[in-house]
Amino acid sequence: MAGLNPGVQRKGFFHGRKWPYHIALTVTALVIAFPLLYAALISTQTNAEIFTFQLTPGSALRDHFQIVWFDRGLSSAMWNSLQQAIYVTTGKTVLSLLAGLAFVYFKFPFKWFIFFFVLVTLMMPTEVMILAMFRQVSGYGWQDTMTALVVPFLASATGAFLFRQHFANLPADLLEAAQIDGASPIKFLTKILIPLSWNVIAAMFVIQFVYTWNMFLWPSLIIRDDSRQVVQVALQTLTNIDGSLNYGPLMLAAILASIPPAIVFVLMQKPFMSGFAVGQNK
Amino acid sequence: MLIAGLVVAAILGPLYVRRNTINPTAARYGIGSAVAVLGAAVTPLAMGQCSFAEHSSGVDKLLGYLLMFGGAWLALMGARIFWDRADGKKKGDAAFAGEIRAGGFRLGLWVPWVLLSPTLIILLVFLYFPAAATFTLSTKLTRLGAPKSIDVCFTNFTELLITDPFKLVAYPLIAIALIYGARFWKSRSEPGSASRKGAEVAAVIAMLSVFVALYAMFSPGGGGQVAYRPVYINTVIISVGIVAFGMIGGLAVAYLAFRQIRGGGVYRTLLIWPYAISPAVAGVLFFMIFDPTAGIFTHTMDVWFGIDVPNYRESAVLAQSSIILASGWKILGYNILFYLAGLQTVPLEQIEAALIEGASTWQRFTKVVLPALSPITFFLLITNLTYAFFEVYATIDFMTKGAPAGKTSVAIYEIIRVGVNNGDLGRGAAQSVLLFIAVIAITMWQFRTSGERVSYGGS
């Protein structure tokens, strides 16, 4: 998809005044941002201030931070989520790279069957088998462990095919050059393929980091110990503070929980967008 | 009985190969037969052949054969997709066949297996095993955490359906007849003729009839049956609502934002960031906005418009709308991202040609831009649907928890309610199988419609 790098070729198409578009885009951006802006406002207000519907920041931000971050252990929940997201993202990327390497640069018996075996899992989302998986993983004694949050998600057909497609589009003479040099497959991967794949790896990293960080259903089933819970589920315990619904801390926690994936997304936006182009429109 | 079914599969396999592949070799007849038998054998073996036991009822046997037929058909369909691609039948797929045969490293045979084994083991243990176990569980009555279980065969399924066997057979047959009728009509009509237009309308009606047939087949409850029809309705309403809102909104915003103006990159970031927000956080944010006592929505409606909005958790329409709004808002960024990328590929010459012909803005949009975007629209339709099926769970759990009276309990929410909260694993697994079938149907549709697309959304 050539056009993912917008700019050059679009000039001249768009004539006329531009300020109406600036206004329209600003308004749209504000409408989209409204839920978050509103939550940011609420996060500074005490319940009493909220019920007066004042539109200026309140007085309680510091107290709320103390409550959610320290007293209610949001910091440890965020730490659990961060570990999970990094383990899953790294593991999945490595396994997908290896699978892509095997699919594109090797010939082996039953390759079509293996290919199919992986392809079929595209229509097997974890959610439709969540009860059986819950029973199976509980049977391993993995409740309340990081293992349960990481290991089942280490492999993915999406990732394997993403790299397969990317490798297949690379020039064929790369391999010949590597073979003349007598490079091993792993050396070929680390010295030649990976340096040519940073965009795809970045795309994979963003997709998987956001996916893992935002996971809710599986941790809510397999993790019951609050100190080991991930942040998305930990938010739920915050709907009850001191025996009642306290809006400010809940909103502050929701915002804090969104910061890491937002940082990853914004920082890696450029390579993410170009990596996304791989395999599209083919 | 089981053997008879397998023999029929062994005969039907080669017939399917003959009809549906362009290069039916002897080897493919053999493989077709074997694949059909394997596909047909999977479900009865997973379910312990219960539907063919001595005491099993007619409905049990019917469902047993249906599952065997479905398994064989799925297996053959998979083989066919593979053969089509190996033959390079679809344009651009010759490259695929080349890749399958591609190679290069001449090393020990074990090397590729070592590279692939971690992926294969994880997929086998954490996807294939639980998938098979879901089918096995669905034929049992068993409590969460309890070691004992009773075999109940298809009872977990039949109690979700209406009890009249005649209707259960007739409704799907009518829907299938409509689909094939519309196809037949289309094949007989000239492209561009009025008759072709009629055939296309008929095809849409036939597709809708599938949803109506399902509606009629699920039990409304009572008489010892489980009321699954409401769950089906909720799932359809909420899924269609999220997909429609997310995709139309995404396209509208992208169409506004794709023009090159100063600061375009900043605007784009400000429009697509909800991609990084979780469904749970989306639930929390809209939980605040719509809160009946403290939320800004209720307050504004009251103060500015004098409208006394009832508690959204007590009104079915409001509860469903708020779920759709929260989920649609969250998926909006994802759709804008893809539509922005897609809009860059719309051929400029075509837009200019339309401009010269004096087409209005709206005509240019519908005649040039929309058709050029259709591959992306289709891709987004599938990913949005997957989102609406599964990820919506967290949003519902924060906003309504299925209230009022189960009106926001969609299929995945109901599975957890029955399987985990009520601890009724067997019944939950049976509902999971239904959802599984829906996912398989959507994926098959995707594979058939588009040759070479790979989904990037979820796991």
State the total count of DSSP E strands of chain A.
0
Rg of Cα set of chain B? 25 Å
Principal-axes geometry of chain A comes out as: globular
Number of helical elements of chain A: 15
Oligomeric state as shown: heterodimer
Question: Helices, strands, pairings?
Answer:
The complex is a heterodimer of chains A (282) and B (459).
Chain A: H1 19-42, H2 47-51, H3 61-71, H4 74-105, H5 111-120, H6 130-139, H7 146-150, H8 157-168, H9 173-180, H10 185-193, H11 198-213, H12 217-222, H13 231-237, H14 247-267, H15 269-276
Chain B: H1 2-20, H2 26-46, H3 58-86, H4 94-101, H5 110-137, E1 140-142, E2 149-151, H6 155-158, H7 165-188, H8 194-217, H9 229-257, H10 264-272, H11 279-289, H12 296-305, H13 316-343, H14 348-356, H15 361-399, H16 411-421, H17 425-449
Antiparallel strand pairs in B: 1-2
Helix pairs in contact in B: 1-2, 1-3, 2-3, 7-8, 9-13, 9-15, 11-13, 11-15, 13-15, 14-15, 15-17, 16-17
